[in-house]
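Q: I have 153 residues here and want to know how they pack in 3D. Can you give me a structure?
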Amino acid sequence: MGAYTQLIARGLFMTLMLFAATVSAQQTAQVQGGQFERLGSWEVHYSAFPSSFLQPEVAQAYNLVRSRAQAVISISVLDQESKQSQRVAMSGYALNSLGQRKELNFRRITEGDALYYLSSIQHGNDDRYRFFITIRHGDNSEELRFTQTFYRN
């Protein structure tokens, strides 16, 4: 990986994990940043936010669409004790308020020792989604559930 690509990769990781600190007070009410759940022996960090928060170079580097109608779901799975990134299988879906199901297709991103998983979803204004994400490693399987409302800013 070239120096420029590494810089972009670090930029994406920082954007995904720290984006809430850079949004306005109005937008902060609609985003959930820095959240995590303890599931089994894992610490699962997750966020869902408008793809328009990404810098154009970062979105392009990771083939993500920047749009007012597109959101990014970012998940990282750490071992609770060692805090090491975990390589897992991840699948899931989201249900909107009408009960319509949208499948999530996660891509694994590796940056040095860090692993995280990205997916995206299209949304309307004031669209509330319930997320159901299954995380598997060997015989271990856990389900992450959370709710997020998206707005077109």
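Q: Anything worth noting?
A: Confidence is low (pLDDT under 50) at residues 1-11, 17-33. The chain has three helices and nine strands.
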